[in-house]
Specification:
Two copies of one chain form a homodimer. Chain A has eight helices and eleven strands. By secondary structure, chain A is of the alpha+beta class. In chain A, strand 6 (126-136) and strand 7 form a beta hairpin. The interface between A and B is medium-sized, with 33 and 33 residues. Strand 8 of chain A pairs antiparallel with strand 11 of chain B, so a sheet runs across the interface. Chain A binds a DNA duplex through residues 10-12, 33, 36-38, 46-50, 52-53, 55, 66-72.
Chain lengths: 242, 242
DNA sequence: TAGTGGTCTAGACCACTCC
DNA sequence: GAGTGGTCTAGACCACTAG
């Protein structure tokens, strides 16, 4: 007996995809619980064990969070601890300080070749370009420049960015329904030019980390391309290998 | 009924620890298969499902590798693909090239405060200090300096390093029975001094990545502390966030 | 006390590999 | 065909949370 479905995959993976679709459609919002495993098993017509395996994988990917006795929750960037999920920066001395974002610019523009390729949109499409500084303990440490597809972030403005208390990704989540789920970063060492040096309060040509990030929402859809310049005088980028 | 065992943990986690102990003791060597799930279940007196969950976790940590129909294998650094598990460097242009290690020095010394703290040994203990260059496509890209506990790596020499064809970690695995299982890296941007610039064939004060790594073997025991300087003119450090 | 996820078991069948 | 891991199910009991 051959597999008849065009895209064969194990049952639990199909269930996983159905759950992701429900998340993507907004059926369950960040911070809320999803139905219990029993309910999901009924809904999808499979055993609880199969649902469990699907949820296990989504929990391993930080898309869902299980809490014994309470239920399974949709991950949210509202949680302050979630900030360091995507910001791998630690202070050399002292404990973890929540960084504060200071927006500098929010421009409308058209996607160039590189931005279009990274974001999977047509060259010339509307995009937003956001520049901001991240301050730790009042000191500027990171300068970011972000490229965001215009259709997804309609209505974004500098005022909105300035008013928001919290992380950028929690803003994207609350106002635009865009939840960042995964990202890849390419890291290089570069030299600070005059303008960047002034903002980060370092000498010109100080070595900086250049961190280029492509961030994805549900279904591996890229929705943010950014480049950050990190001053590593008092901080370092931390990574776990296994 | 209270838990009587001093360190309570779920059965599958106890099984996991027993498997790690067997690996640590050398009962099963890198590249070999471990007993089948049925055999392990019998040996430990638990169900196959419980063994499976233990093995699942070890496979997720890259300590074991499952191959359907063949069995479960102990991960090995002999596999050329394993090189990029701990070396997150990719060429900007062109495909993946296997780097070639060129050892420069292998010195005996005594652990200073920092090395001792990182390696969990007494200050003043015997250590080895190894320096080497990594070449991609014949071009020097990385210069590494490693600090290795003397008791673990007894007999290490420059000749041995020069003769070895393959990665450093595969040498450690074959000759010293030390298998690197996990590591943390702290990354900063620094400036090339004269000596480093000469080795890496770049201008003096070129920005470089400084990658400080602490690598662990089974049981979270640190056995290597190293610092690498990466030239990122034609390469970048890649990282996945989730 | 009821409901949730967490653990553990037992057994069936499938998919892959090797002989 | 025999043996391995991979999937799926069903059911029991435990641990945690909340009302």
């Amino acid at each position: 007996m051959a597999h008849e479905s065009p895209t064969f995959s194990p049952l639990y993976r199909q269930i996983k995809n159905l759950i992701v679709q429900a998340l993507d459609s907004g059926e369950w919002l960040p911070g809320q619980t999803i139905p219990s495993e029993q309910e999901l098993a009924l809904r999808f017509g499979v055993s609880q064990g199969t649902v469990r395996k699907a949820v296990d994988e989504l929990a391993a990917e930080n898309i869902l969070v299980r809490r014994q006795g309470k239920g399974t929750f949709v991950s949210t960037h509202q949680d302050p601890r979630a900030v360091f999920r995507f910001l791998r920066l630690k202070a050399v001395n002292g404990g973890p300080v929540l960084p504060k974002s200071q927006p500098l610019e929010c421009l409308r523009g058209k996607a160039g070749q590189e931005a279009a390729r990274n974001l999977g949109i047509e060259p010339g499409s509307q995009i937003f370009i956001v520049r901001r500084v991240l301050k730790f303990d009042g000191k500027p440490v990171v300068i970011d420049e972000m490229y965001l597809p215009g259709d997804v972030f309609q209505g974004l403005s500098l005022e909105m960015l300035k008013e928001w208390q919290g992380s950028l990704y929690s803003l994207f989540e609350s106002r635009f329904g865009v939840r960042m789920v995964r990202a890849t970063e390419k890291i290089r060492a570069v030299s600070a030019d005059r303008a960047v040096a002034d903002v980060l309060n370092v000498q010109e040509s100080t070595p900086l980390l250049s961190v280029e990030r492509l961030a994805y929402t549900y279904g591996d859809k890229p929705v943010e391309w950014r480049r950050g310049l990190y001053s590593t005088a008092e901080h370092f980028y931390i990574n776990e290998l296994s």
